[in-house]
Design goal:
Helix content: over 70%
Radius of gyration: 22 Å
Number of helices: 9
Strand content: under 5%
């Protein structure tokens, strides 16, 4: 008798999951799980910290340095960054590094791409090239060519 109930219960639960997923898609899950003001504030503080005092270019900076400087813990930082950006703290930091490099490509045409990569905390230029292409859809070289041709 018990095994006869397993399949209907399972199907009922699966139906409930499907309705929940459909509801989340319809309602917009981001509205239901929007980051709190505290999480947004922590990510702003993280960004300010990373962009100040050459912290972004510091290749030795690690998660423990960051959480100590921000006066938080690993889980709170990870949850906040994930809620606000959809990325892990290290992914977010790499995104900021690539954005900073893009700004330097625009403002320092005299610097080589490798010099810019190193100045933004990338130890290995090929890592920088790969992340830049992933973030912007073109290589740093192609970006620089486009930027300089638009200035003329």
């Amino acid at each position: 008798m018990e095994t006869a109930l397993v399949l209907p219960i399972f199907l009922y639960l699966m139906l409930g999951v499907l309705f929940f997923v459909q509801f989340m898609e319809t309602a917009g899950a981001t509205e239901l799980f929007a980051p709190s003001g505290e999480q947004q504030n922590l990510v702003i503080r993280l960004q300010e910290y990373l962009l100040s005092d050459d912290n972004l270019s510091n290749t030795d900076i690690n998660r423990d340095d960051i959480i100590s400087a921000l006066g938080t813990n690993k889980n709170t930082l990870t949850d906040a960054v994930k809620a606000v950006t959809g990325k892990s703290p290290m992914e977010y930091m790499r995104t900021l590094k690539v954005e900073e490099a893009r700004r330097k490509l625009d403002s320092h045409p005299e610097l080589t791409i490798e010099a810019i990569a190193f100045s933004c905390g990338f130890n290995i230029p090929s890592t920088f090239y790969r992340l830049f292409r992933k973030q912007y859809g073109i290589s740093p070289t192609e970006y620089r060519k486009m930027a300089t041709s638009q200035e003329k």
